[in-house]
Amino acid sequence: MARTLVGLPFLRSGGSDEVYFFDIGGHISAEARINERIRVPEVRLVGPGGEQVGIVRTDEARKIAFEADLDLVEVAPNAKPPVCKIMDYGKFKYEQAQKARESRKNQQQTVVKEQKFRPKIDDHDYETKKNNVVRFLDKGAKVKVTIMFRGREQSRPELGFRLLERLSQDVAEHGTVETRAKQDGRNMTMVLAPVRKGKK
Predict the structure, then answer these.
(1) What is the pLDDT of residue 106?
(2) What is the pTM of this model?
(3) What gap in Å lies between CA 77 and CA 46, rounded to an integer?
(4) Strand ranges (DSSP E) for 82-151?
């Protein structure tokens, strides 16, 4: 039967003896008790390679960790007895901090810029606005392209479709169509996403 304990999944086997299998790669609290701060009389010990050592006295577990020049870290305090793992805790915390920083970088909110066109745009204005779109895409932003129709232009939606198709082809090396052209009230919109580096 599978359960979750302090963010560490484990399974319990049948029979009179309980055997626990911990994924120690899971979450370990930043306030985890280590070494002399572990006050319980005995712990279920996991070796530095993830091997199950079994239940040992805490003093003996600390001695094993000390002789290996590593730390004894309490990874599942609510288990009976608590589960401890032998590891380099300083190195572990450093690697976790690095992963957290990398994760924050990857989770940065994507910027969405907007560039507006008129369906009957002259070549000079088109090139200027196209270059703006390319600049936004090259900086990693998505671009919402909006075609603004006025008056009788609203009866000519094909002008907008043709313009958006032309633009998507002209910037193909810099961006791809994420949301195809669609009518949005009196406007027509399309969303371009930047091409990932190495995939141009």
Answers:
(1) 66
(2) 0.47
(3) 13
(4) 83-87, 112-117, 142-148
